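Problem 3 from the worked examples.
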Amino acid sequence: MISEIKNAQGETLDFNLHNANEGRQVVVIGHGVTGNKDRPFVVALANALEQAGINALRFSFAGNGGSEGRFVDCTISKEVSDLGAVIDALADHEICYVGHSMGGAVGVIRASEDDRIRRLVSLAGMVHTAKFAETEFGMEKPDEGCMWEEESCPLSSTYVNDMNAIDTVVERGAQIKVPWLLVHGTEDDVVPIQESHDIIAKAGDNTKFVELNGANHVFAEEHCEPMCNAVVDWVKGQFG
């Protein structure tokens, strides 16, 4: 399908292809903040799509996982550009983008301005970015502290400033015209399920919402399979 993806800064993005067929329909999966393409539920979803006969590509944003770049440079705005680079590399494909958490906010922004994303999925999608930064990292000093006490994930002022500048993607919901699936767990204590309700209220009738009772932010343990099933079933219905 493709052999290399470079972003606007010339950084190589690490990715894995799950080739199920020779067709031109593909599901692109992006992760959340401090995550990468190899998180268990991301791999499980890609495998489930492949087993269902659907092509998938999971990738790490620059500065994460095996991708080039520095974590301190990571922002939603840069990741929107990274997603554009992935789409550029898949220029002859029909794309469904699946974004988890902050990757969900990335997807909303990109899909609202890039009609090459033909279908959109938000998994525990972040909506209120400034609120998230304050709630999760407000006790840390930018450029000195770390995200969730992970030394490999320093909290940069670049990241915080970008989160505050975006503030929220809720109004972007009204600009999403493509079919859109939102999946959220009731026990998500990182991105509250209310955020999905907030953006759905702004969206049109092109949305479908799946609430997973008891699921946390990363769809752990017994909640991974229902999440995968919800996404696979919806994508199969969309791709036909």
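Problem 4, a separate protein:
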Amino acid sequence: MKELLAKPGFLAPSGTFGADLSYLLAVLFTVMFLYAWVLAKKGLGTQHHKLIFLSMVSMLIYFIGYYYARQLGVLTLEGKEGFGGPEEVYKNVFVPILTTHLILVCLGLIFSIYMIFQGFRACDKIDGEYVLQSRELKSSPKVFKSTMVILASLWAGNQLVLTFIRDKSFAASLAWAIIFGVIALVVFLEKFIEKSLPNGAKRHRILGRATMIIFSLILVTSTLVYLMLYVVYPKT
């Protein structure tokens, strides 16, 4: 897969196939999510649900494969990505933007998954249509404990693969540990969210807006990263 991603791109002379594909898909996923949000604003719950679900599954399949192959951007943070600009710009501008982008991607993936499950819980299917219901939503302590155990097991298994099979760097292991840590934090914060936003419909609408903002920022930061790497400061 690395060889395919490293082939010459089609958007910029200095771009790679992986970078061009990543950017175009970032645009596509953002447009799909924003359009799904418009459907929700119009009260078209079923169409919103189907498009969000399709977008999320497609995005997960691509981003997990792409960022796993690229060590979640760790190569860039280690200065191996091909940035050709001044060192000051690299440290003070490029790395902060890239780091922000990677954090937003992680948050976007996490909140997308969370919102799918939360949407199912907050909706009833009436005459074949999904309709948000204004009712109190609470998760059971048993489900909470089981989720945390599953996350810990997945993290441990992933660390074993990274360390003993793929022989990845400490930075790559740390990146994955941060991702699982953020997921666990979101699950833990569900208890706080339940108290702050007990109404399921209201919670879905408020967190849905936050998720849309995150994806809009992902598009902005990915555009900046792409322009700096392959248009403004390509490595010759």
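Solution to problem 4. The mean pLDDT is 80. The radius of gyration is 19 Å.
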